[in-house]
Amino acid sequence: MKRSVLALFATTVVLVLSGCQPALDTNRNAALSTASPAKETVDKAAIEAEVIKLEREWADANKSHNADAVRRVVADDAVIVYPDGTLATKADEVSTIESGTITADAFDMVDPKVTVVNADSAFITGRSVIKNGKYKDAKTKQTNDISGEYRFLDVYSRRDGKWQAVASQATKIAK
After folding, report:
1. Number of CB atoms found within 10 A of residue 62's CB
2. What is the DSSP string of 95-157?
3. Chain centroid to CA 31: how far?
4. By C-alpha distance, which of 137, 154, 157 is closest to 145?
C-alpha cells in the first residue's frame, strides 16, 4: 500500500511539473537585453599623456632620489621585475630610491608607446637609457655599472580615480 501511494504521489508531481511553463528570468532587465550596448568612451590621448607623465616621474625619481614620487606612482601591490630577474615590491623600490644605492647622470625614456586597454588599464613600452649609472649592492657592498639601454614594459591601472603602475619589467638590451 505504501509503495502504491508513493508511486501515485511521484507520478502526480511529475505530471504537474511537466505542465508548468519555465519561470521568467527576473535577474535581467528585459529592456537591456534588447538594447544595443553603449560604447565605452575612452579619452585615449589623455590616458596616454598621463601614463607618460607618470613614467617620466618614476624615471626622474631614480636620478633625484625622490621616494615620494615612487610612493605616488607605484601601487602598493605592484610586482617589479628587475633586469637581473629579481622580484621587487613597492617597498623595495622605495627603499632603493631613498637609500641612494642607484645613481645616474641621466635616466632617459626613449620611444615610449602607450597602449590603452580600456578606461582603467593601459601599458607602456619603450627604452630607458641610463648614463653613468651605478648600483651599490647592499649585501656585497660592490658597485655595479648599470649604464646602458633597457627595454621596459609597465602596466598601469586606474584605481580610485588615479593611475598607478601595477607591474613593471625591464630587460637590458645586449650590445
Report:
1. 21
2. HHHHHT-EE-SEEEEEEEEEEEEETTEEEEEEEEEEES-EEE-TTT--EEE--EEEEEEEEEE
3. 34
4. 137
CA distances 82 to 85, 86, 87, 108, 154, Å, are 5, 5, 6, 17, 12
One-letter amino acid identity for 74?
V
8-19: buried (b, 16+ CB within 10 Å) or exposed (e) per residue?
eeeeeeeeeeee
Closest CA to 169 of 100, 51, 62, 86: 86
pTM recorded for the entire structure: 0.75
What is the pLDDT at residue 26?
A: 57
Measuring CA to CA, which residue among 130, 127, 123, 121 is closest to residue 60?
130
Contact (CB, 8 A) for 75 and 64: no
- pLDDT tens track for 160-172: 999 999 999 999 9
pLDDT tens digit sequence for 32-47: 555 566 677 889 999 9
Q: How confident is the model at residue 68 (pLDDT cuts 50, 70, 90)?
A: very high
| pLDDT(22) > 60 | no
DSSP 71: H
pLDDT at 1: 55
Cβ-based neighbour number of residue 31 at 10 Å? 7
